[in-house]
Amino acid sequence: MFGLALKSMYNRRLTTVLTVVSIALSVTLLLGVERIRTEARNSFSNTISGTDLIVGARSGPVQLLLYSVFRIGNATSNIGWQSYQAIARHSQVEWTIPIALGDSHQGYRVMGTNSGYFDHFRFAGGRALELAGGRRFESVFDAVLGAEVARALGYDIGDPIIIAHGAGKVSFIEHDDKPFTVVGILKPTGTPVDQTVHVRLEGYEAIHIDWKDGAPVSGRSISAERVLQMDLTPRTITAFLVGLRSRIAAFGLQRWINQYPREPLLAIMPGVALQELWDLVGVAEKALLAVSALAVVVGLSGMLVALMTSLNERRREMAILRSVGARPLHVFALIVGESALLTLAGVILGVGLLYGLLLAGQPLILSRFGLFIAIGGLSSYEVILTGIVCLAGTLVGIIPGLQIYRYSLADGMTIRL
Amino acid sequence: MTPNKGNDLKPAIAIENLCFAWRTGMAPVLKIERLQVPRGERVFIEGPSGSGKSTLLSLVAGVVVPQEGRVGVNGRQLNTMPGAARDQFRADQIGYIYQMFNLIPYLSIVENVTLPCRFSKIRRERAAGRNGDLMAEATRLLKKLGLEASSFGNRAVTDLSVGQQQRVAAARALIGTPAIIIADEPTSALDAQHREAFIRLLFQECDREKTTLVFVSHDTSLAGIFDRRVRLTAINAI
Questions:
Q1: Is residue A275 part of a domain?
Q2: Res. A221 pLDDT band, cuts 50 70 90
């Protein structure tokens, strides 16, 4: 019977191929959405590790998390250097990493920080940043590039770069009077660090020292040589990361910072804020998953339509099979077996397509969105999803199967056309 | 499942007090008090279109069972057999030829001929027994019916002429020597010249194995060469 089913399908190969492809596409969509969802979560969770608190100006926890760690969106306001110093000196604080944001280089964010960044920043379950070449920044106009920035823009150690004011890809004002020099390039991390140009806080201060209210003050331009003689202690920073001596202190310190009397500050725990973010995007995720599940339903309906329309021309085939001794059950099994085979082929092709797309899209997604999509085997959830699709496809076959079963009983030995 | 001695004496087809309607509650289409066909007989059943010829064949093939009366084929009572057993009985004992469109388009010529052997172990063993393998037996039968394997080679069955298709169908009905060949107007699509040649070929092969042949047609010009001629309108009380 199996051989008969295969030959019959080959005979109708155009419809068969189209049906398999439509099921495959819907399965790819379903698994793709699921894969992007879990990988995005993994990628986000892997972006920061070992940081107990993130402190910024008072806004929303999700917003603070997004702009300080993921370089998504912008800070509404900065925090004073004095406040930062006061908190950094707290007895429970082991280390801090200051972050100054706002400028960019060809669309990549420029982040001002200090050497603590290289010592204390951790990602993906405790991995430290490593240099692929060169050294850390030391002087005011040194820059250390993330792996993707260096790769995409083709920079090497020693190249000069000009920082543009603002975070957009196209900027009309550039700090071209004070060029930076690439002194180091980081190894790839699969996090937004790869998309970032790192400079010293003093460098950030230096390019804005002759600015006031977000614009250069005309006639008061200060040269790059002269600026080095000046006091470059920043007046403000955007946010800072805090590592504590004991994690137990996190709640106490968080409350202390949130009630800091001299300035409205917000301290968040990255894990808690991330959870809040998931709750936020969870609705959209569910909607996406529902849409892709509907696509599978559409794909299977296509198969049902193809099978049902083939039934009339196959009545003759079934009568011949009956005449040589096939039971109605054989005829039923032929149709249900065919739908099971079609679905299975669709699922296999769909999974193949998914991996093809992942392989092709992985570098693109990494460079565009900073999301690192790991390519692993099917998760148990995905296996269950494909299993459900296979089962549904087989069950769908019961409808035309019963129909032909009824035909074969009613037609008897007569051939109806 | 070789028929025992007692069965051998029984007629190939024995119908008694039969009454059949396609659905219970509908008017019956066949009412036959008695019809007997002895083994090895070549019987011609005639009747106009719609007189219940195909229905009678469905009953003999065991695809349907009568509401009343008995249908015996080779000593077995089809009307009391469960459906699956009737299907198996049909696979083992009956070769069926339709008036046209006999072949499954996606199977090769030889695959079409050996199709009954997929469903009947008895016919598979009988067919393979004579020549050692099914392919050889199928080729032999086709050759007997005037189709040289070398001339049609791997041609699709849909490329064959109607006459050739009917000969392939005859080979399929004959393979594994079933007890009864049922032919439902197999010559209606053939011209007069091919018609008789086809029937003679069919006779030749039936004679070799003493196979009973039930041949149904509305074309009475063929009736003369059969052993017996039965008018369905004469035996059907409807």
A1: no
A2: confident
Number of compact structural domains in chain A: 2
Contacts of A216 (CB under 8 A, 6+ apart): A173, A210
Nearest partner of A102 among A223, A234, A266, A265, judged by Cα: A234
Q: Does B50 touch chain A (CB under 8 A)?
A: no
Helix axes A13-47, A328-369, angle to 10 degrees: 40
**Strand ranges, E, within chain B:** 13-20, 30-37, 42-46, 68-73, 76-77, 94-97, 180-184, 212-217, 228-231
**Cβ separation of A325 and B91 shorter than 8 Å?**
yes
Nearest CA in chain B to A319: B102
Q: How many domains does chain B have?
A: 1
> Does residue B84 sit at the A interface (CB-CB below 8 Å)?
yes
List, for residues A165-187, the tens digit of each pLDDT value: 876 666 667 787 888 999 999 99
The answer to whether residues A252 and A144 belong to one domain is: yes
Which of A268, A296, A318 delimits the end of a domain? A268
Cβ distance A105 to A149 under 8 Å?
yes
Same domain for A166 and A300: no
Asked if A325 and B92 come within 8 Å (Cβ–Cβ), the reply is: yes
**Mean of the pLDDT values across residues A312-340?**
85
Query: Is the pLDDT score of B177 beyond 80?
Result: yes
Is residue A18 a contact partner of residue A40, using CB atoms and an 8 Å limit?
no
Give the closest residue to B13 by CA, choosing from B79, B85, B99. B79
Residues A122 and A28 in one domain: no
Do A412 and B84 count as a contact with CB atoms less than 8 A apart? no
- Beta-carbon separation of B104 and A412 below 8 A: no
Q: Tell if the CB–CB gap between A325 and B58 is shorter than 8 Å.
A: no
Domain of residue A163, residue span: 53-268
Torsions phi, psi for A107 (to 5 deg): 90, -15
The CATH number covering residue B47 comes to 3.40.50.300
Q: How far is CA B4 from the centre of its chain?
A: 22
Residue A274 falls within a domain, yes or no?
no
Hey, which residues does A300 pair with through a beta bridge? none
Question: How many Å separate Cα A134 from the centre of its chain?
Answer: 29
Domain that holds residue B211: 40-64+81-235
A151 domain-assigned: yes
CB contact under 8 A, B63 and A415: no
Report the residue of chain B nearest A325, measured CA to CA: B91
pTM value > 0.90: no
Cβ distance of B119 and A413 shorter than 8 Å: no
Please give the Cα distance from A2 to A130 (Å, whole number): 58
Pairwise CA distance, residues A170 & A87, whole Å: 36
Q: What is the mean pLDDT of chain B?
A: 84
Contacts A330 to B, Cβ<8 Å: 119
Closest residue of chain B to A417, computed from CA coordinates: B101
DSSP letter string over B9-30?
A: HS-SEEEEEEEE-SSTTSPPSE
Q: What's the DSSP call for residue B132?
A: S
Q: Which of B54, B104, B116 is closest, CB to CB, to A413?
A: B54
